[in-house]
From TrEMBL, chains A, B:
<feature type="binding site">
    <location>
        <position position="162"/>
    </location>
    <ligand>
        <name>NAD(+)</name>
    </ligand>
</feature>
<feature type="binding site">
    <location>
        <position position="171"/>
    </location>
    <ligand>
        <name>NAD(+)</name>
    </ligand>
</feature>
<dbReference type="GO" id="GO:0000166">
    <property type="term" value="F:nucleotide binding"/>
</dbReference>
<dbReference type="GO" id="GO:0009423">
    <property type="term" value="P:chorismate biosynthetic process"/>
</dbReference>
<dbReference type="GO" id="GO:0046872">
    <property type="term" value="F:metal ion binding"/>
</dbReference>
<dbReference type="GO" id="GO:0005737">
    <property type="term" value="C:cytoplasm"/>
</dbReference>
<keyword id="KW-0862">Zinc</keyword>
<keyword id="KW-0057">Aromatic amino acid biosynthesis</keyword>
<dbReference type="GO" id="GO:0003856">
    <property type="term" value="F:3-dehydroquinate synthase activity"/>
</dbReference>
<feature type="domain" description="3-dehydroquinate synthase C-terminal">
    <location>
        <begin position="201"/>
        <end position="349"/>
    </location>
</feature>
<feature type="binding site">
    <location>
        <begin position="125"/>
        <end position="129"/>
    </location>
    <ligand>
        <name>NAD(+)</name>
    </ligand>
</feature>
<comment type="similarity">
    <text>Belongs to the sugar phosphate cyclases superfamily. Dehydroquinate synthase family.</text>
</comment>
<feature type="binding site">
    <location>
        <position position="266"/>
    </location>
    <ligand>
        <name>Zn(2+)</name>
    </ligand>
</feature>
<keyword id="KW-0547">Nucleotide-binding</keyword>
<protein>
    <recommendedName>
        <fullName>3-dehydroquinate synthase</fullName>
        <ecNumber>4.2.3.4</ecNumber>
    </recommendedName>
</protein>
<feature type="domain" description="3-dehydroquinate synthase N-terminal">
    <location>
        <begin position="87"/>
        <end position="199"/>
    </location>
</feature>
<dbReference type="InterPro" id="IPR016037">
    <property type="entry name" value="DHQ_synth_AroB"/>
</dbReference>
């Protein structure tokens, strides 16, 4: 969906009948819908009864969500006659680990859930990635329902079937592609999300503009206040993001090509997350906000993009309160060589050469497969100043 | 491949040019070949160079194989210019566990193997199932080469893409479907396999006859001596088995239907393996030998098959030295109710009803989805006498 600044139309991203916005993800016999709307958590039971008849629900959630939205989910499931049990993990990235994975696998199997039953992820990207991996491997694949509750999960991690956990060597290095059967994004759930995490998710929203939709980015520059406030602008931003991701995923499910564009800012970003120990020092969306600014700056340095565009990106992220510089990361960071080493451990390495998503300007990202490591260290050494 | 006793032709199962027998597995863009022949381990390097150009090899093997056939594999890889490193696990079913899985995953990632590199399984079904699961999840899927060295692995576990590990709740309950890119079955490797494990693998060979190829079963009744002795009869039996499995897998990759026929004897068998703690008291092939006899006896009891056919099955397995009765299992077993409980935990349970593979006679197995649990306990109580 490439639009120009003049033609981006937020209203077109909404459902006309006041019901949930439906974004189909076209993947042949693995196709599914993303439903976006206000107050949908309580309707998941009815939706499952209709779309996954007979499936019981092995809910996976984190302790934050368990205190906020689990009751509504369980009430709706019960009303629909769907048996469920809930497995609660600790909030935070540390739950995307082997020990927690093993514990959830055991709990799902111990709950006697079968292939036709569904793992139901209620939470942010951490819960979604972890439980999607569980759904992908228990009995070699169970059904899977995502109820993303963070903005990041609603616009990014719940769509597309990438699941996984982290290991000592790096982030998301272990997992499977396992598409959900249904994604239900309740925009009302975002009202309990912290400002910080809303902002972090916003970085992924802006990413879709930066990749190939300059019009959407321009609309965000003008309307970010309304998006943060909630209401129709927020719903429009979420639906536009989901459509953009759905289109890319449908074209390249297994990331053999175009899908890599979604990693804009992520090679730098993952290195920063590794450097800060995947801790609260820097959450994913903050890391990739810096990463996207760096990707634009690096593109300028490689004479690929204009300084003006890179400055617009930095300015917009600053305006909404996202970090944009290495210096914005609290605490010490490794030097340029140390960061390069972390980048090399990132999974977007093809046969020893560095792959980056670079850009010719806002809305003009592309895959660069052969970036010389020395150019990266030189650039990072300057950026660290 | 259904043949009658009169038409089964062992010679037709062999390659005519003296080269390896090639059995194609037709799975669209996941198609691959099984190569069967004498002394192939040393040629895996050349085969990989030709068929998986550029892939490095993360060898996974067990301590027994490491002492017997790893050198030949490594020499061939080196001669072909393929970098490799070997990860050695303990022999035996206990290696199909979360801790070993995690260790191998870490070793593969730590060895900086990438998506385009291959996990190379050198060993029996344990090594194949474990390392196939690793290949399926590291970086969300690496390439995978199987070098099955046990008879069971050559005729069964290396073909079809089922991978996985065991958990406390049961066998193979965690894993993925991950097809290999190449399977190389070196029949010479079987010369170092123990009699006991050769016999256990033979149970799976006979299974293909019992499922839908009465002619093959009759040929085995007449030629088992030659199959055990090695040479062309052994190769013919292996190739016939691989063709049978390849056909079923091609028709039903994800076991939504016909593929379940391959579980003949396995529901009872898995319960016996669970009851004996997956220990050396009873290896997989022995467990399913008993399981297949029980499946025939149970079918007789349900008035589905003739006593004559069931007796032929028991007699043949006895002749080759396989166990055929619950009483043949060394040590104590749970009673009928205890066994039923273990059966219920087996994964071939659909929405609470018991699914068994039953038979109308030799070569006439079918899927029975609605077996009353009480019929099973009654039958087992008698069988235990
Ligand atoms: N699979 C993919 O394609 C993909 C894409 C992008 C990111 N990710 C992954 O997503 C993860 C980050 O996701 P995230 O930012 O959602 O992190 P998260 O799941 O840790 O959620 C952030 C915090 O917000 C809380 N929270 C979530 N929803 C809430 C709500 N409605 N109300 C109150 N609190 C709420 C959580 O408990 C947590 O403390 C990372 O692990 C990243 O790797 C995956
Ligand atoms: N994936 C599938 O479709 C599938 C199908 C059937 C069985 N299986 C699994 O396969 C496993 C059983 O396989 P297995 O019987 O090969 O067990 P195994 O891998 O434990 O091998 C049996 C023993 O023989 C040794 N061995 C193997 N090859 C040898 C050789 N050439 N020379 C000397 N020693 C050798 C091994 O070290 C081991 O001690 C079970 O875990 C079962 O669940 C999987
Ligand atoms: Zn991201
Ligand atoms: Zn078997």
């Amino acid at each position: 969906m490439t639009t120009t600044a003049a033609t981006f139309d937020a209203a077109a991203a909404e459902a006309s009948d006041g019901g949930p916005v439906v974004v189909p993800v076209a993947l042949g016999d693995r196709s599914y819908d993303i439903l976006i709307g206000d107050g949908l958590i309580g309707r998941v039971g009815a939706l499952m009864a209709e779309r996954l008849p007979g499936a019981r629900a092995a809910i996976v959630t984190d302790a934050n969500l368990a205190g906020l939205h689990l009751d509504a989910l369980e009430a709706g499931l019960e009303a629909a006659g769907i048996a469920s049990s809930a497995i609660v993990v600790a909030p935070g990235e540390a739950s995307k680990s082997f020990p927690v994975f093993e514990r959830v696998v055991d709990a799902v199997i111990g709950g006697r859930f079968e292939r036709g039953d569904a793992v139901v992820a209620l939470g942010g990207g951490v819960v979604g990635d972890l439980s999607g991996f569980v759904a992908g491997v228990v009995r070699r694949g169970m059904r899977f329902v995502q109820i993303p509750t963070s903005l990041l999960a609603q616009v990014d991690s719940s769509v597309g079937g990438k699941t996984g956990i982290n290991v000592a060597h790096g982030k998301n290095l272990v997992g499977v592609f396992h598409q959900p059967d249904l994604v239900v994004a309740d925009t009302a759930a975002l009202d309990t999300l912290s400002e910080r995490h809303f902002r972090a998710g916003y970085a992924e929203v802006a990413k879709y503009g930066l990749i190939d939709d300059a019009g959407f980015f321009a609309w965000l520059e003008a309307n970010h206040g309304a998006v943060f406030a909630g209401g129709t602008a927020r719903t429009a931003a979420i639906a536009t993001s989901c459509r953009a991701k759905a289109r890319v995923v449908a074209a390249d499910e297994r990331e053999t090509g175009e899908r890599a564009l979604l990693n804009l800012g992520h090679t730098f970003g993952h290195a920063l997350e590794a450097a800060t120990g995947y801790s609260d020092r820097l959450v994913h969306g903050e890391a990739i906000a810096i990463g996207m600014v760096l990707a634009h700056d690096f593109s300028v340095r490689m004479n690929l993009a204009s300084r003006d565009d890179a400055d617009r990106v930095r300015a917009h992220f600053s305006t909404v309160g996202l970090p944009t510089r290495l210096a914005d990361v609290p605490g010490d960071l490794p030097d340029a060589d140390g960061l390069l080493k972390l980048i090399g451990q990132d999974k977007k390495v093809a046969r020893g050469k560095l792959t980056f998503i670079l850009t010719h300007g806002i809305g003009q990202a592309f895959i660069a497969n052969d970036v010389p490591p020395s150019a990266v260290t030189d650039f990072l050494a300057e950026a660290a100043v």
